[in-house]
Description:
The protein has helices spanning 12-34, 40-53, 60-80, 83-95, 104-122. By secondary structure, it is mainly alpha-helical. The chain has one domain. Helix 2 packs across helix 3. The longest helix is centred in the N-terminal third of the chain and has 23 residues, at 12-34. The termini are far apart.
Amino acid sequence: MNEFPERPSISERGTRVALIFALAAERLSAFYEHGQWLTEAQGASLAADWLTRSKRSLPLNERRQLSGLSDQLARQIAGTLSREAGMYTAHEMMEALDPRYHSELADSMLVECERLLDGAAAD
Length: 123
């Protein structure tokens, strides 16, 4: 018997939202740990790795677009929060990459990722 419930399948939109979230978490962590932002190429590479692990794929141009949205979100978070609050947010987002971890803060960040994706689709 599996100790964890089967993960529900994620829609294409859900995959894109989750990818923005995961990349933003990685970007914030790198920023607070090393004091520098990931490049576009690093973000696209992380996106490919994440998609491979989750047995999904997206074309390079879409991975770059989603990487750009994650960069926008991460910089917005870092620019509006104190260092301590930003580090806490980055930590919560990284923890929330584990589907068994629940965080209201991460849930609110997922909503923001959805908003960014919807805004990009409207452009």
